[in-house]
User: Fold this.
Amino acid sequence: MARFVLCFVSFYSLGALLAWMTWGSSDFRDRTEFAIGGIGATIVGYSIAIWCTATSDFPLTGVIFAPGACFYTWFLAHAIGHLVIEGKKSAMGDTTLQVAPTYHQAEAAEKRHDFAAAERLYRQAIAERPDDAEAKRRLAELHLLRGDAEAAARAYRALIADTPDPEGASLLVFRLADLLSGTLGRRDEALSLLREFEKRHPQSGPAVYARERAARLGE
Assistant:
């Protein structure tokens, strides 16, 4: 019985630590050294479960260890997949992507309401890839999520200025127009934005939608 309890506590404590480091901390999840260490921890976990199942006379030992074994299997696939991807990047000579923050890290920080960490990740991405429009858009939305609509509006204006393509710019313009006319209550500014976009891209398809939106706002 004592052997079973020791195995059970060790097995699930190790699994809980891996789970926390995988989902609870963006600082660990995508590090190569974490993936390598996690694979070693998974092997230890499997060994504990197999040894205890084979030697313990406690009933249903295998069934009790099964849920944890499922997590260990998932984690092993995650870690191996991470190493494969990093290996391909290294083989192609792509070293910048290995340290660049990922969007899902920032999203995880947002879900934890750790907005400072999310902003740091987006700004780091922008610093490393100044043409990363998606990181800039996400940063604008983050400002809005934090309740700073003015900062969001400034970020969207800057992004619109850096987006020459009318199709891509139109989505940003419409988002900013909604923000101005709704949250910020500046309908005239939203009208001006839509009309300016229409004048700048008169022959584009989005100009028609900009005209229709402006007409609805002007009613």
About this structure: Residues 121 and 127 are 10 Å apart (CA to CA). The chain has two domains: 2-94, 97-218. DSSP finds twelve helices and no strands in the chain. Residues 97-218 form a domain with the Serine Threonine Protein Phosphatase 5, Tetratricopeptide repeat fold (CATH 1.25.40.10).
